[in-house]
Structure formats: structure tokens, C-alpha cells
Amino acid sequence: MNTLTATRLHAADVNITMVSNTPTVTDYARRYFGSWWNAFEVLPESVCAAPVVFADVDADQYATLQALVEACPHEETTYAKAATLVARDTAGVIIAVSPTQQLAYRHEPATGRLSVIGTTSESVALAAARISRDAVRGMLLRDGWALLHASAVTDNCRTVLTFGEKGAGKTTTALALANRGWQLLANDRIFVRPDEEGQLRILPWPSAAAIGLGLLDALGWYDVARKRLQAGESLHPTQHPEVTKAVLAGRREPLWEPGGKRERKVQVYPDQFADWFGLKLATGGLGHSVLFPQIQHDAVPAVEGCRRALSDADFMHGATEDRYPDILGLAPAGGSGSSDARLSVAYHLAKLPQHTVVLGHDLAANAAFLHQLLSD
Fold it and tell me: What region does 198 belong to: left with phi over 0, alpha with psi -120 to 50, or beta?
């Protein structure tokens, strides 16, 4: 007989509880969210109100849901890089199945009940964490938060937000400053909402961080990661196996997918920032200033004269989240916040000091320059 376990996730003023018949599923949630959100174990019998995610390893139940979706009208999409079938009934219940991953999802909007059913504990743990995070996002957005495509670091007094398109240097900037002693608040996206005093409150979006082999080496983390992998530890399971092989083999140059368009990167768990690399992680902050970096080969770090305005691409929505479309209808339309919330956030961000900077490939020089710039 399986023993139920439960983990509660808490961010700002919202929470959700995950209940599972497999302890490793809820253990994973505490590990994944605990560094940036408040995640703690609760008694399953204390869970008496929605929202709840039921995350069970149950091959028979998965097979039943798969047969149900395949037998009724459904749509096909790609979710988490896998073909996924999505069906909706007249009562608004949404059921989705991914046959290749052997995962099923069910959402009952009327009750707030979510279910993730699969055949292995690892796949259920990863899927349940994604769905729980999306459910929390939906609740935060309904509370007036906006979700931005940005990284953030803080020193308790000042929180610096970094914006830019993919490859502009958001993650590089955040990790360079965190490696110098700042606390890492987020590496790719953040929740933002003005408080009653007009200050911008910042919350993290817990996620694994994608770090190229060259950046890992430049940060001084490569040898640490290699030794940990040699000792039998592992990075996030979404990491491509070729990346693990490259690190174990001592390869430090970038590893590219066939065609050379996308770099395969190391995928670091949130808690590994602290446990492996000695960084400090922050659970929140108040916006102080904004950076718009651009990485250029052999550039000397410097301030650029032009001022860059926030754009639609700086908010997280369908166009920037191609891997995880909102198949269960958990987030309000758009997924980045209401138009009023976005306008308010943009207005308050525009009032913060802004720095458009060019950075080179010398991470130590970049970090020293940014630290001085932000301290003036």
C-alpha cells in the first residue's frame, strides 16, 4: 500500500499543495522550489482545500486516461518537447496525454483540482513541478503580478534587473555578479508588482539554469561540476546526455546541436547554485536599477549612451514560451499579466536608474565593472 506524502509551495500570498503516492515526487518539489519559494512538507490529511496537485505514479490510471483522450475529439500540440493530445469536455475539464512520455494531466477548473499521472517517479516529479509552478503563476498573475523575461540579483538593499533578448547576457550578467557576492534572485524570469509605496517587489521563478560549457569554465565552476559528476551526482534530467559526456571528458568549448544553431548547455538545479558553487540565493527583493547588456567579443566593459525602453518581448507570454504552452488553462490570457499590471510595471521600471552596457568575454572584468557601476 502506498503512503501519501504532501508538500506545500508558498509564494507571496498564494500557495498550492502537491500530494503524491510516491515520496520521491514531493521530495523533488521541496528540492526544486525550496531555494527560491517556501516549500515544506505537510501532513496529507491536512489538505482540505484547493488548489491541489495530485501527482501519482500509476500505470493503470495513465492507460485509462490515454484511452479516454484518444477515443474522443482532441487537439495535438507539443508540450515539453513531446507530442501531446489535449481534450476538453462540456463541463470544462481538460485532459492531456503525452504517449511518448507516458504522462497524463487533468484539470478541473470548477474545483481547482489538478492531476499528473505517469508511469515513472522521475517523469511524474518533473511534470508535477512544472504544473504546480504554472498554477502558482496563474494565481500570482490574478493577484496583479507580471512575469518578465529578466534575470535579477540583490545585495538585500538593491535589486538589479537585467533585460535582453536571448544571447544578450542576462544569465551571464546575473551569474557574474552572484559569483562576486551578490545574491541570485532569478536567472531568466521574474515576477514583479508595485507595492503601495510604489516600490517594485520582485519574486523569483524557480527553474533550472542553462549554462554553456564556456561560461561554466569562465565562472570557475567547471572543475567543481566535473568532480561532482565523477562522484556520481547528477545535474537536471533535462540536460542532454552529450553534455554530461562532454564535461566528464573535460571538454570546455561550446557544444552545439546538429546544425550549429543552438548550444547544448549544462542544466543546473536551483539548489546546486548553493551546494556546488557557493552562491547565495534570495527569495525576494525591491527593484533598484535596470541593466540592458550586450555581449561583444573582446569588448572593454563600458556604458553605452542610448537608453532602451521596455518592449513586449520583455514580458513572458506565448511567443517566448514555446516549450511549455498553457495546455491546462492555468494562466490568464497571455501568461504574463493583465494589461493594467504590465503597464504599471513598465511605468515603475521606467523610473528606475537604467544602464545600457557593453560587456566582453572577460567575466572577472565584467563583474568588477558592473559592481562598481551599481555601487556609484
Answer: left
The pLDDT tens digits for 187-246 are 889 999 999 998 999 999 999 999 999 999 999 999 999 999 999 999 999 899 999 999
Identity (one letter) of the amino acid at 152?
A: A
pTM above 0.90, yes or no: yes
Residue linked to cell 513572458: 316
User: If 0-12 CB within 10 Å is exposed, 13-18 middle and 19+ buried, where does residue 176 land?
Assistant: buried
First to last CA, the chain: 62
Q: Please give the Cα distance from 215 to 195 (Å, whole number).
A: 36
Cβ atoms within 10 A of the Cβ of 195, count?
A: 10
Q: Among the residues of the chain, which ranges form H helices? A: 23-34, 59-71, 121-142, 170-178, 213-218, 222-230, 241-248, 270-275, 339-350, 363-375
Going by C-alpha positions, the residue among 95, 188, 179, 119 that lies closest to residue 150 is 188
Those residues of the chain that have pLDDT short of 70 are 1-2, 318-322
Cβ within 8 Å of residue 41, ≥6 positions away: 5, 6, 7, 8, 26, 30
Cα 51 from Cα 42, distance rounded (Å): 14
Residue (of 376, 305, 374) closest to 152 by Cα position: 374
Residue type, 362: D
| Phi/psi at 182 (5° precision) | -70, 160
